[in-house]
Amino acid sequence: MNVGSAMYASATALKSFGVGTQVIAHNLANVLTEGFKSSRTLYYDLPPYSGTGAATQKLGAIDGPLIPVQGLPPQSASPPWVPSGFVEGSTTDVATEMVSMIVTSRSYQANAKVIPTVDSMLGTIINLRV
């Protein structure tokens, strides 16, 4: 792996972890939204030494908890399995999202640290050649 590919790999990882942060923020922002289906970020490696990619996956197969509601008419948008007098809650788990946020932010920090290190290495190489 050369210095340029290390910089590129780190840059693609920063972009991927940025997507992960946006997905987590979206999930947390909708934690109280009725019927909200949370998403997750899947990270994958690009061809050897080419970096990291990210894809978002909606967790639509998981049903949210039932929340009792009084005084509201049954909603036609509710799934058929939701009984009258209840609404489907969000599938977002705050504890899971916070752990994911910590892991994602630490991964982002580690890859951000690579850029000044590579810059310093390039400066040293240039000074040696001059």
Structure in words:
- Strand 1 (39-45) and strand 2 form a beta hairpin.
- The protein has one domain (3-129).
- The longest helix has 36 residues, at 94-129.
- The strands form 2 sheets. It has a two-stranded antiparallel ribbon with strand order 1-2. The chain has a two-stranded antiparallel ribbon with strand order 3-4.
- With 130 residues, the protein is α+β, with helices and mostly antiparallel strands.
- It is 48% helix and 15% strand.
- It is elongated, with a radius of gyration of 22 Å.
- The two termini are 24 Å apart.
Quick overview of this protein structure:
This protein has 130 residues and is an alpha+beta fold. It is 48% helix and 15% strand.
N- to C-terminal distance: 24 Å
> What's the helical proportion of residues?
40-55%
Structural class: alpha+beta
Whole-number tally of structural domains: 1
Shape: elongated
What quaternary form is this? single chain
Largest sheet: 2 strands, antiparallel
**What is the arithmetic mean of pLDDT?**
82
Low-pLDDT ranges: none
Strand tally: 4
The side-by-side strand order for the widest beta sheet comes to: 1-2
Q: Helices and strands, in N-to-C order?
A: HEEEEH
Radius of gyration: 22 Å
* Count of DSSP-assigned helices: 2
Give me the secondary-structure topology:
Blueprint: H1 3-29, E1 39-45, E2 52-58, E3 66-68, E4 86-88, H2 94-129
Antiparallel strand pairs: 1-2, 3-4
Helix pairs in contact: 1-2
List the defining traits of the structure above.
48% helix; 130 residues; alpha+beta; two-stranded antiparallel ribbon; elongated; 2 helices
